[in-house]
Amino acid sequence: MSFKLNNFIDDFIGELQSNTITTICGPPGCGKSTIIFQYINECINNNKKAIYVDTEGGFSPERLKQINKDINLHNIIVIPPKSFEEHCETIQSLNKEIKNNKSVGLVIVDSLVMLYRLKLGDAPQKINSDLGEQLRLLTEISRKFDIPILITNQVYNDFETKQTRMVGGNVIEYWSKTILEIKKSFDIREITIRKHKYKKEGLSKKFEIRNQGLVEINKKSFGFFNKN
Predict the structure, then answer these.
(1) What burial class does residue 218 get, using C-beta atoms within 10 Å of its C-beta: 0-12 exposed, 13-18 middle, 19+ buried?
(2) Terminal CA-to-CA distance of the chain, rounded, Å?
(3) Domains annotated on the chain, with CATH
(4) For position 227, what pLDDT does the model report?
């Protein structure tokens, strides 16, 4: 099963792919949650349920109602782990949850690394191993049930290379088959393909956020984009 948003994102990255993990990374307030909520809306429009693992308290019924005032919120299963240990248990329980509820069509983890970061200093090697196991289980679920797994991730600036990097580094990069990075400059956002099965890496689109979701920016409409 896969989903379309019926906007510029469909042309940009294609359908949200099943059998795989898609990661959306970026700083707070860049639009990650809006994309997620749009995919939840499409999942429910396809008569499926969505599982939302909420580690940051970001689930917003009000925002979903802005996107679709008629959305059935009862078709969203929200699970709010409060610790990294609870997060691990939640991921381990998803297989049984989906097996018992065959109408689940989408799993979201928002974000994968919030509780991981809080725990990382205690035992880095074990915590990184646990993170890798979570990603392995999520990949297994996506393949077993033929559904998309959509996760969000935070970023940080590497002081040595001066580059923006994902929290979790190589582990998340390995297990994610699609990686999208969002950057924000005032009210303008830019989404860039960092990894994809068949789309060219480095392609980007500028967009803004409105009540109904993401809207691509037409360069001709903004003077500061023009060569003149």
Answers:
(1) exposed
(2) 45
(3) 8-225 (3.40.50.300)
(4) 40
